[in-house]
Specification:
About 35% of the residues lie in helices and about 15% in strands. By secondary structure, it is α/β, with parallel strands linked by helices. The structure holds pyridoxal-5'-phosphate (PLP).
C-alpha cells in the first residue's frame, strides 16, 4: 500500500468520511506562504492552514526558537513546575491583552481554552454564591470548537446538531446582522436583551467571536453589538468572554478584533496564530476580578489541568511569534490585503452563483448559492497553485498576513475562477463537508 492508499483507508481527516474520503494532498515541506507537495508542485496557502500561519510557514525565527528550547526542555508537567518560556509568554501576553487581563491559563488547543473560559465563569459565579448561574449566552452563527462544551456554545443549527443529545442547552441570541461600517441599529441586539431579562439568574457569562464570526457564518458584524454586551453584562453581574482565537492577532486589522469597540471582556481566549501556526497552544486570559473571585471560593483551586499545559516548545514558539508581531506592522499588512481583496473580489458580485462578497482585514469571503463540485475545487487548486478550502456556502481566503500583492492577486484569481463554476451537487453526494 502506498502511503496515500494507507491514508485513504485508515486515517480520518477533519470532517471527512472514511468510506468516501475527499481527496488529500501529500505535503512534504513548507516555507513562507507556500506548501510543497510530494510531486514537487507548490501551493499558496490561502487558508493559512486554518488561519494560524500568520508569519508564513516554517518561519526561521520560530523554528530556531523551538530548536533552542528543544535542547533544554521539551516538556515538563505544569502541575508543580514552571519554566522560563511560560513565564515570559504570560508576561508578554498580559502586556498586549486588553487592560487588566493579566491572569493566564495556558491550554493545548483553542477549544480547550474556550472550555476553560466557560468553566472560569461558572466557578466565578459559584464562588459568589450563585451556583444556579451555570449556563451561557452565545450567538447564533458562532463557532467555538469541537469539544462538547464548545459545540454546545456554537451555532445550534450548524455543524454539530447531530450531537445535540449530549450537549448542555445554553441560550442563543440571534446572529448579529448589522455589518461593520454600517449604521448601528439597536434592534440587532434585541434578542440578547430579551434573554438576559428573562434568564439573568441562570447565566454565568456571554461568549462571542468579536466582530468576526468565522467558522460557522463568515459574518462581520458591528462593534456596537459588543458595547451592548458589555453594558448588559455589567448591569446583570454576567461575565463577558471574547473568543479571539480566529479574529485575533490582526486577522481583521487591529491586534484584537474587539479593539474596534473600545470595551474589554472579562476573559479572552487566544490560539491559532499565537505560535504563528508552528505548534498547538492557546490561552484564556482573565481579569484579576475573575481570578481573585475564583480563588476566594470553594474550592479555591481552578479545576482544570491538561497534560500538555504550557508546553515549553509551544511557549517558546509563541514568544518568537510575538516578537515578529511586535517588530512588523501587521495591522498595515492586514489592511493592505483588505484593499487588494476589496478591489479584486468586487467584480464577482454579478456572477449567477454569487450571493454576497464580504471583506474585512485579511479575510475575503464570497458567499455562493451552492459550492462548486469537488472536481472543480481540485482543478482550481491545481491550475492556480492556490490552496483553497471552501465550506458551507463560502469560498474564502484568510492568507498568511505576510502575503504580498502578487500572492493576494493569485488568490483572487483562483477564487474568481471557482466562483464562476456552476453549483455542484449537494454536499453529502459530493463527499464534501466542512
Ligand atoms: N474558537 C474559534 C473562534 C475558532 O475559530 C476555533 C477554530 O477554528 C476554535 C475556537 C477552536 O480551536 P481549535 O481548533 O484549536 O480547538
Amino acid at each position: 500500500m502506498t502511503p496515500l492508499e494507507y491514508d485513504r483507508t485508515r486515517i480520518w481527516h477533519p470532517y471527512a468520511s472514511l468510506s468516501n474520503p475527499p481527496p488529500v494532498l501529500h505535503a512534504k515541506r513548507a516555507s513562507g506562504v507556500e506548501i510543497e507537495l510530494a510531486d514537487g508542485s507548490r501551493l499558496v496557502d490561502a487558508v493559512s492552514s486554518w488561519w494560524c500561519v500568520a508569519h508564513g510557514h516554517n518561519h526561521p525565527a520560530i523554528v530556531e526558537a523551538i530548536r533552542r528550547q528543544s535542547e533544554r526542555l521539551c516538556h515538563v508537567m505544569f502541575g508543580g513546575f514552571t519554566h522560563d518560556p511560560a513565564v515570559e509568554l504570560a508576561e508578554r501576553l498580559a502586556a498586549i491583552a486588553p487592560s487588566g487581563l493579566d491572569r493566564v491559563f495556558f491550554a493545548d488547543s483553542g477549544s480547550i481554552s474556550v472550555e476553560v473560559a466557560a468553566k472560569m465563569a461558572v466557578q466565578y459565579q459559584n464562588a459568589l454564591g450563585r451556583p444556579g448561574r451555570n449556563r451561557l449566552i452565545a450567538l447564533k452563527g458562532g463557532y467555538h470548537g469541537d469539544t462538547s462544551l464548545c459545540m454546545a456554545l456554537s451555532d445550534p443549527d450548524g455543524m454539530h446538531t447531530l450531537f445535540s443529545g449530549i450537549m448542555t442547552k445554553h441560550f442563543f441570541a440571534e446572529k448579529p446582522t448589522v455589518p461593520t461600517g454600517a449604521a448601528w441599529d439597536p434592534a440587532d441586539a434585541e434578542s440578547l436583551r430579551r434573554i438576559v431579562a428573562e434568564h439573568r439568574d441562570e447565566i454565568a457569562a456571554m461568549v462571542c467571536e468579536p466582530v468576526f464570526q468565522a467558522a460557522n457564518a463568515m459574518n462581520f458584524y458591528h462593534p456596537e453589538y459588543l458595547r451592548e454586551m458589555r453594558r448588559l453584562c455589567d448591569e446583570n453581574d454576567i461575565l463577558l468572554i471574547f473568543d479571539e482565537i480566529a479574529a485575533g492577532f490582526h486577522r481583521t486589522g487591529p491586534l484584537w478584533a474587539h479593539l474596534r469597540s473600545g470595551i474589554s471582556p472579562d476573559v479572552m481566549t487566544v490560539g491559532k496564530a499565537l505560535t504563528g501556526g508552528h505548534l498547538t497552544l492557546a490561552a484564556a486570559l482573565a481579569s484579576a476580578k475573575v481570578a481573585d473571585t475564583i480563588s476566594g471560593g470553594k474550592p479555591s483551586a481552578f479545576m482544570h489541568g491538561p497534560t500538555y499545559m504550557a508546553n515549553p516548545l509551544a511557549c517558546a514558539a509563541a514568544c518568537a511569534s510575538l516578537d515578529l508581531f511586535a517588530k512588523g506592522d501587521y495591522e498595515a499588512k492586514a489592511l493592505s490585503i483588505e484593499r487588494r481583496f476589496r478591489d479584486g473580489l468586487a467584480a464577482l458580485r454579478g456572477l449567477p452563483n454569487v450571493r454576497d462578497v464580504r471583506v474585512l482585514g485579511a479575510a475575503g469571503v464570497v458567499e455562493v448559492g451552492r459550492l462548486p463540485a469537488q472536481s472543480d475545487v481540485s482543478r482550481v487548486i491545481r491550475e492556480h497553485g492556490v490552496w483553497l478550502r471552501p465550506f458551507c456556502n463560502f469560498i474564502y481566503s484568510m492568507p498568511p498576513l505576510v502575503s504580498d500583492d502578487a500572492t493576494v492577486d493569485r488568490i483572487v484569481a483562483a477564487i474568481a475562477d471557482l466562483a464562476s463554476c456552476p453549483p455542484g451537487p449537494p454536499p453529502e453526494e459530493d463527499g464534501f463537508h466542512e
